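During the no-cost extension, the postdoctoral fellow (Dr. R.K.) reprocessed legacy sequence entries with the updated structure-token encoder. One reprocessed record is reproduced below for audit purposes.
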Amino acid sequence: MKTQRNQHKIVAAALCAALMLGLAGGAYAQQAGVTGGSATDNTSAGNTNGGGLPQIQQRGGVSYVSGGVGLDESRALQAAQSRWPLALRFTGPRGEFLADVHVSIVDAHNSEVLSTTSRGPFMLIRLHPGRYTVHAKYNDNEQTRAVTVPARGHVKSAFVWNMK
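Re-encoded structure tokens follow.
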């Protein structure tokens, strides 16, 4: 019985900690200029894309969407991953979500096809099939991944930073 009470206390403490981290992350995102959205905000979540998905952005011939700071937006982006050729995720060493990651994608001819900054831990990108190199930079630490976007289906790539 005592073990069961301790387990309930641990679960309650974990839930409380997760809630506080979520609130703190949202507050940080607002201070950092990361935007979420509302039903009346036509530039981000909860608008013309429906289902909480952030507004689709366009750079040159590449469409992309990024975000995932809030729970609804995060779930919407994760649910949409299979409909986008490339899905990127940015996290810290314990899985904490990161925003403001600079992303540069170059094609097989070393031509830059996208240069932007993520608004959250998830970025979905519509690219033509082929080989690409993704450069992701967070707090002056850059990581590089080679990805091959298939003609059918999608590919995922995760970037994890060890922060000190």
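The chain has one domain: 32-160. The chain has two helices and nine strands. The remaining legacy entries will be reprocessed before the final report is submitted.
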